Amino acid sequence: MITKQFKILGLATLLFMGSFSALAQKKKEPVNRILFIFDASQSMLGRWQSGRKIDIAKKLLSNMVDSLKGMENLEIGLRVYGHQKGYPPQDCDDTKLEINFLPAHLVADRMKAKLSMIRARGTTPIARSLEEGAKDFPTGHARNIVILITDGKEECGMDPCAVSLLYQRKGIILKPFVIGVGLDDSRKNTFDCVGRYFDASKESDFTNILNVVISHVIDNTTAQVNLLDENGEPTETNVNLTFYNDFTGVAKYNYIHTMNAYGNPDTMVIDPVLSYKVVAHTIPPVAVDSIILTPGKHTIIPLSTPQGELEIKMNSKIQYQYIVRPAGVDTTLHVQEINTIENYLTGRYDIELLTLPRKKFIDVEVNQSTKTTYTIPTPGVANILLPSRGYGGVYLQNKDKLEQIYHFKGNEIQHRLTLLPGNYKVVFRAKSAKQYIYTNEKSFKLKSGQSELIKIF
Q1: pTM to 2 decimal places
Q2: Are 342 and 283 in contact, with CB atoms under 8 Å apart?
Q3: H-type helices in 29-84, by residue range?
Q4: How far apart (Å, rounded) are the C-alpha atoms in residues 303 and 235?
Q5: Parallel, antiparallel, or unpaired for β 380-385 and 347-353?
Q6: What is the pLDDT of residue 27?
Q7: Which of 68, 69, 241, 271 has the fewest CB atoms in 10 Å of its CB?
Q8: Boundaries of every domain in the chain
Q9: CATH (residue range 380-455)
Q10: Residue 419 — very low, low, confident or very high, per pLDDT cuts 50/70/90?
Q11: Which of 262, 273, 258, 190 is nearest to 224 (CA)?
C-alpha cells in the first residue's frame, strides 16, 4: 500500500515538474514589441497619387494595426514627430510618444483614433525620435522593433545612422525598418545606414511592405547550417557557430552544431529581422556574411568545412605543446597539446613542437576524415654539473652544424634539462676566467628515456 502511494506521489511530482518546465519555457518566449514612429512633418502634406501623403499613410497604418488585433504576444506603441508645433520656427524637440505599449487587441482602436487627430505641421527630427523611441521600450526580455514611416530627411543636424547603431549595439532595439513614403530618389540612400529600407513609391507598395515588415516580427523563421565535407555533403558537425549581427558586428547567437535524429543538420529558430555573418569556429574559422532570412521560411546556410584530425604522440611527463601554422605562413593558427586530437580544415600546415630542442614538421597534410599522426620518442634527462658558475650553453650537434638550445647565464652550477634524443655538446667558460682559452667543451649522446650525468672539469 505504501509502495503504491509512493508511486502515485512520484508520478504526480513528475507531472508537476513537467508542467512547471513547460510553463518556464513558455515564459522565456520574448514579447514582440513594435514601435511605429510616424512622420507628421509639414512635407507629409504633399500629394501622393490619390491624396495627401499623411492621409494615405494614416489610413493604411490604421488598417494594418486593425489586422494585428488577434496576434498574441505582441505589443504596439506609437511615437509621432512634427505634429505639435508649426514650422517655422523649427522645433527639433517636436517628438512624442502618443500611445504607450499595449497588447495588440487593445491598441488598435486607440491608435486609429489618435492617428485621425494627427495634423502635419512641423519639422523632421528623425534622429531625436529614434533616440527617444529607443527609450520608450520597457525593460526586460523582448524583441524591440522600430518601424519608421517617413517622407523626408533629418532636418535637425543629428545623425540618425549613429543613433540607430548605438541603440542596436546596446541591444535595446533590433535593426529598424524604414518605409519611405513617396520619397525623392536623392534621399533614399540616406536611410541604408539607419536600418532596412523599403521604398513605397506607390500607394499599393505601402500595404505590401507593411505586410512584409510585420512578417519579420511574427512569423516563425528557421535555418540550418550545412557544414560541407570535400564532397559537398553536410557530414561535418559538433562545431561552434556564431551568428553576428551583420550591421553592428555584435554576436546574436552562439550554438554548437549538431545533427538531428535523422542524421540531418539541426533546425534553429533565427530572428529574420537581422542580416547575419555566420562563423563556423573550425581551425581555421570559416565565415559567410550578408545572410538574409525570409520570414516564415526555412533557409539553408552552406559552409565548406572539410576536416581531418591531427595528433602528436609522445610518452612524456611534461605536457608539451606545439604550434600549428598554415604552411609557409609565420602566423600561429592554433596551439595544441601532445597526446590530444584536434580537427583542422583539410590542407597543409607547419608544426613546431615546443620541446628542447624544438622539433619541426614542415608541410604536413591533413586529409578529409583521416587522422595524421606523428610519434615522438620519449625524451631523456641531461644532468649537467659545472665546476663553477660560468657562461656558455648546450648545443645540438647535427653533423657539422651546432645549434644553441640552452644558455648558461653565470648563476648556477647544476642544470637539469629534459631533451629529445640526439647528439649534444656543452661549451663552458668559468665566470672567473677572463680569457677565451679557458673555454671547455664536452660532447654527449642522449638516448630515449635515459638519464645522463655530464661533468665539466
Answers
A1: 0.81
A2: yes
A3: 53-67
A4: 11
A5: unpaired
A6: 46
A7: 69
A8: 31-218, 222-304, 307-376, 380-455
A9: 2.60.40.1120
A10: very high
A11: 258
Q: Which CATH class is domain 31-218?
A: alpha beta
393-404 per-residue burial string, b: 16 or more CB within 10 A, e: under 16: bbbbeeeeeeee
- Model confidence over 167-186: pLDDT tens digits? 999 989 988 999 999 887 77
CATH code for 307-376?
A: 2.60.40.1120
In the block, residue with C-alpha cell 649537467: 384
92-to-81, 105, 183, 215, 255 alpha-carbon distances in Å: 9, 33, 21, 33, 44
- Fold agreement (31-218, 222-304): no
Residue keyed to cell 573550425: 282
Say if CB 306 and CB 331 are below 8 A apart: no
Q: What is the pLDDT of residues 341-397, one digit of tens each?
A: 999 999 999 999 999 999 999 999 999 999 999 999 999 999 999 999 999 999 999
**Nearest in space to 88 (alpha carbons), one of 41, 134, 46:** 41
Q: What's the grid cell of residue 123?
A: 519639422
Q: Find cell 550578408 and name the residue.
A: 290
Cα–Cα distances in Å, from 419 out to 257, 323, 378?
41, 18, 9
Reference 359, options 306, 413, 285, 422; nearest CA is 422
Instruction: Assess contact for 161 and 107: CB atoms under 8 A.
Output: no
